[in-house]
Amino acid sequence: MIHSSIINSANDILNQAIIHHNDQPIGTVAARDNNLSAGNYSECFIRDFFPSALVFLMDGRHDIVRNFLQAVLLLRNQQRQMEGHELAEGLMPASFTVISNTGKPTSLVADFGDRAIGRVAPVDSAMWWIILLRSYTIISGDIGLAHSENFQRGIRQILNLYLKESFETSPAMLVPDGSCMIDRRMGVYGHPLEIQSLFYGMLLSAQELLLNNDANQSLLVMVRQRVQTLRSYIRLYYWLDIERLNEIHRYKSEEFGWDAVNVLNINPEIIPEWLDGWLPLDTGYLVGNVGPGKIDFRFFTLGNLLAILFGLTTDKQAAGIMNLYETHWERLIGQMPLKIIYPAVRGDEWVFMTGSDPKNVAWSYHNGGNWPSLLWTFAGAALRAGREDLARSALDVTLTRLHQDCWPEYYDGKSGALIGRRANLNQTWSATSLIITDRLLKDPDSLAVFDTVVF
Ligand code: GLC
Fold first, then answer.
1. Ligand 1: which atom is nearest the Cα of residue 409?
2. Which residue ranges have their beta carbon within 6 Å of ligand 1?
3. Which protein residue has the closest C-alpha to ligand 1 atom 12?
4. What value does the CA radius of gyration of the chain take, rounded to a whole number of Å?
5. Which residues share a beta bridge with 419?
6. Residue identifier of the C-alpha nearest atom 9 of ligand 1
7. Which atom of ligand 1 is nearest to the CA of 30?
8. Which residue from 107, 229, 303, 325 puts its CA 20 to 30 A from 380's CA?
């Protein structure tokens, strides 16, 4: 099939995924498959809608994105207060669905994790929402929406929640397991990279969107400071290249006091064997998680790529991450871009970390599966780092097969050669990811648009 018909077919997937509320387009379902692997894929997920929204914005279909932003803002009022708890004002739902009532207007019902599998907290939703609001504002030129009183109040509520002091000992944000794209137990509690990258992107966006008035003054000061401390912390403590690995390898532990070098008391014994020889000169990446006595050395794709897109990495670090992709193309891109985490956990580690989750066995789903939905972030990051060649190669790998396989949600196996055992077909963000990547590479003008979308 020729290139343009594949892209047309991806556009069909997107258009068929659109859902309406009171006759207005308002979002897209996660997947349209007669045998959905779980009931909630027929809902509109905030994180899945982001690439749909980028396509709509690139196509001048601003109204859908505006409707979505308004609806989600209102939906935060549906959050139920748990007995004995304060309401977490500023939390946004993981997903929502449209309920048809015969003879009456449709209604929207949100899920704040109270219906979700495993009851996971959607910490990333509000961050995607603010980042999207910025993209919408820039591309549509409609600054009025973000500046309206209810949007300004919404942004303030989110920031109040996300900047609230809890039990932090670093500028990184502390979250429970499964609170982002990897929404199951996968050892991503504590300070996972994806959350830190989104947090950084959200703070930068909010800084631009908040009006400089009395109501926002103190928040703006905090945001500005946190942007800086978070950026320095991630660039230092999450960055791993051969030089830093050497340092950790020779760390002394049990250091107390202000002069400590190994401040987090990392025992070199935690360095995994697979890292030996994995980091040639001029390569590097941001590790998955950092905390007291802890470094999760696994390579998490989304966190690394968003860090490049939002400018959280230095240019040198961004180049190092792209060199790493080139070096380990078979492992990190394979036969279907992209590996979500490398490497997979197995054996006892899988038992303890995932709670023996059969969906997350080694080299499947979140545990080292390959996700086409990650392609757009790879293309954006590669272009930002001046590696158009890598973006093109990744698109070539994806093009024919993804369409032939009917847009699966994910692939299994070390190199992503097999359609995921429980993958949905017609997964919306598998299609939108391809459309965005194609557009970025084909049309230099849309590249400019993309640049303003993501910093
Ligand atoms: C899975 C993914 C999650 C996604 C959802 C809908 O739960 O882990 O990131 O939002 O499916 O596609």
1. 12
2. 30, 41, 45, 47-48, 181, 183
3. 30
4. 21
5. 411
6. 181
7. 12
8. 229
Sign of the torsion angle spanned by Cα atoms 186, 189, 193, 199? positive
Please give the structure tokens belonging to residue 207. 């800084």
Query: In this structure, which amino acid lies at residue 7?
Result: I
Closest by Cα among 136, 139, 166 to 151: 136
Q: What is the pLDDT along the chain (455 residues), one digit of tens a residue?
A: 689 999 999 999 999 999 999 999 999 999 998 887 777 899 999 999 999 999 999 999 999 999 999 999 999 999 999 899 999 999 999 999 999 988 888 999 999 988 888 888 899 999 999 999 999 999 999 999 999 999 999 999 999 999 999 898 999 999 999 999 999 999 999 999 999 999 999 999 999 999 999 999 999 999 999 999 999 999 999 999 999 999 999 999 999 999 999 999 999 999 999 999 999 999 999 999 999 999 999 999 999 999 999 999 999 999 999 999 999 999 999 999 999 999 999 999 999 999 999 999 999 999 999 999 999 999 999 999 999 999 999 999 999 899 999 999 999 999 999 999 999 999 999 999 999 999 999 875 665 555 554 44
- The β-bridge relationship of strands 95-101 and 418-419 is unpaired
Whole-number Å distance, alpha carbon 183 to ligand 1 midpoint, is: 7
Beta bridge partners of 367: 364
Q: How far is CA 146 from CA 17, 77, 88, 310, in A?
A: 26, 18, 22, 20
Q: Where are the alpha helices (DSSP H) in 110-192?
A: 123-140, 143-147, 149-162
Token pair recorded at residue 141 = 């030129």
One-letter amino acid identity for 331?
A: R
- Residue 111 Cα, ligand 1 centroid: separation in angstroms? 13
Q: Which residue has the CA at smallest separation from atom 7 of ligand 1? A: 183
